[in-house]
Amino acid sequence: xxxxxxxxxxxxxxxxxxxxxxxxxxxxxxxxxxxxxxxxxxxxxxxxxxxxxxxxxxxxxxxxxxxxxxxxxxxxxxxxxxxxxxxxxxxxxxxxxxxxxxxxxxxxxxxxxxxxxxxxxxxxxxxxxxxxxxxxxxxxxxxxxxxxxxxxxxxxxxxxxxxxxxxxxxxxxxxxxxxxxxxxxxxxxxxxxxxxxxxxxxxxxxxxxxxxxxxxxxxxxxxxxxxxxxxxxxxxxxxxxxxxxxxxxxxxxxxxxxxxxxxxxxxxxxxxxxxxxxxxxxxxxxxxxxxxxxxxxxxxxxxxxxxxxxxxxxxxxxxxxxxxxxxxxxxxxxxxxxxxxxxxxxxxxxxxxxxxxxxxxxxxx
Length: 365
Hints:
The protein is an alpha+beta fold. It is built from 12 helices and 10 strands. The strands form 3 sheets. Strands 9-5-6-7-8-10 form a 6-stranded antiparallel β-sheet. A two-stranded antiparallel sheet has the order 1-2. The chain has a two-stranded antiparallel sheet with strand order 3-4.
């Protein structure tokens, strides 16, 4: 179950991106109000607290941080049911910091109506708010780690603060407190000289709206990515493998294409992982097992999709992990509905399409 704070952020990001033609954290006030209404409709009961308070425009514009805050949440919002050391509890703490930072930003700008560009609040103000959050938190180590990633500039902009908060909420989902005593580190193994492992990332489908959303959430040249709606395929030994839905028992859920050439989706970028130390024969054995583990009728857009398969595959290859912004795509896909489905294609429907056949050594069907 996704933490309520993450659900609220997802809804805010998707609604905002739908109104932001160029990408960015600022919209005309009317568009921002419409985005808030879309997020509120998507959230329903998950929009809690004083989430429906009015946005305060500056120079005829509103900032994403204002709209996200208007989606509610935070300590004192009335949500319950999560232990103090859970990701959900950390999410509420981050939302509380978000609201405190927003008050500081609005207070620092006073009656200035010039907009949201330029330095807005001293870095020490935000750092002080983080120290207060750490004192009240059951996970102070999380806040200490977060403080180290705060931009070093003397003054922070609205965008600086917003980007940091979004990143911390994403990191909170996978946060594990460090142990008091660490076991002796195992000696490092030399880098494998095996087969390269590449993860090819696609914008789901060829629809312009999906490409636009992904460009805003995870620009290829931006090192800070917030997720998106992606299809993922894993290339090893010269072929790319992916998982999709199949309604026919005779068509497997796992299929193969030439690298970067999936016919149903638009290629966007490649992430290189560690080489696998497995031989081609051992890779074939892994794929044979994966085909058993991932039948096409077991596909689920939220809990068992192409990104989950890719993550499992690269782990079995010993190649590391998928980037977190790729895995988070399932929640975006849920928000966009049917256009975000990663669908398998019938064997033989494309000259580039192949299916795995262990009896024939993986030759194209």
